[in-house]
Each structure stands twice: as C-alpha cells, then as structure tokens.
UniProtKB/TrEMBL annotation:
Keywords, sorted A to Z: Membrane, Transmembrane, Transmembrane helix
A Pfam family this chain is assigned to: DUF6241
Name the UniProt record assigns to this protein: PRK06770 family protein
Species per Swiss-Prot/TrEMBL record: Paenibacillus rhizosphaerae
Region span, Disordered: 41-67
Length: 193
C-alpha cells in the first residue's frame, strides 16, 4: 500500500473517530439536560397554580424581577406579606432559584437576585404566611430555614430543586462556590458601579 493511501486512510479513520466522539458527547449532554431524577420531574409537574386575586387583592411581581431590579426586591418582599397581596408558589420558587446563583457553580446563570440575610428572613416569613397550601411548602420552608441558619452546604441541590421545578434544561448547578468566588460574583453582578 502506498504512503498516500495510508495517509488518506489514517485521516479518514481519525475524522470518523472525531465525529463519533463528538456525536457521543453531544448526545450525552442532550440526554443529561433532559433526563433527571424522576422525583424532581414529578415535583416539576406538581407546582401549585397561581391563585387568582380576589376583589381588593393584587398579585405580587416577585416572579418578574431581573438582575438589575435589585433595588425593587426588598420593597416587593415586604409588600408580599400584606394581606391584600397574593403570592404564587412559582414566584417564590423563581426568586429563591435566582438567589442561589451567587452561591453555585453553573455554566449558565441568566438572572440573579442578591441573597441577603434580610431577604432570606422575609422569604421564610412569606412561605410561612402565604405558602401553607403550596405543593412544595415543606421543602421550600426547610430550605429557607437552612439558609437563615447560614447553612449553604447543599445550596447546589437547592438550586437544582428550583431549577427542575421551573423545567430547567441549561444551567444545572455542579457544586458550591468558594467564599472568594461568591464575593467576586456579588461584586461583579450586584455592585459593579
């Protein structure tokens, strides 16, 4: 066999291997994004529907916050405790999910809300007062209490719980940031004047 034919065969074999490996990695990534713990998917399918406000009530905007709305967060959290304000489970799930972003390692973090002790305390109160009928009430309250106690050792699991409820496909948490990484994230995301 000539050197040229050997070279062509080598190039074809290497290219075929690269295509097979690349396809395998793509399929694995795609399947990982779709397949998750069945219990998590069950939770995602069982989110309490948003309640309709009764006459004299209004629904909170907690679920519609963006990263640059940091100044509105505290006001909306305090307002959510008022009797005339209706709070949907999905809004609190959304806020808690976005708060975890400052503490977790993930490839994608689209929206972030700064997690402060005061905000965690208000979230716990909101869950206790407004969330007793929510499907995920007990787990959400446990997470809020854990955060209020300063325990963030499983915040990546907390993130992924909220992420799955919101049918996440990109941005699954893969660990917890170090204190230094978290402070850098906070500085760059919330205090970058």
């Amino acid at each position: 066999m000539s050197t040229k034919k050997k070279w062509v065969i080598t190039v074809v074999v290497v290219a075929a291997i690269a295509v097979i490996v690349g396809t395998g990695l793509f399929v694995k990534h795609f399947i990982d994004a779709l397949v998750s713990d069945p219990d998590d998917r069950k939770q995602a399918e069982n989110l309490t529907p948003a309640p309709s406000p009764k006459p004299g009530q209004t629904r909170t905007d907690l679920g519609n916050l963006r990263t640059d709305d940091n100044d509105k967060v505290d006001l909306l959290l305090k307002d959510a405790l008022k009797p005339e304000i209706v709070v949907a489970e999905s809004d609190v799930v959304n806020m808690m999910h976005h708060m975890t972003h400052q503490k977790v390692k993930a490839k994608e973090k689209w929206i972030s809300i700064e997690m402060t002790p005061e905000r965690v305390q208000l979230l716990e109160q909101i869950i206790q007062v407004k969330g007793t009928s929510w499907i995920n009430y007990a787990r959400m309250l446990d997470i809020a209490k854990k955060w209020e106690a300063g325990d963030f050792s499983t915040v990546d699991e907390d993130h992924n719980f909220f992420w799955m409820i919101e049918n996440g496909s990109i941005g699954k948490a893969k660990g917890v940031l170090t204190e230094k990484e978290e402070q850098e994230f906070i500085k760059n995301t919330f205090h970058n004047e």
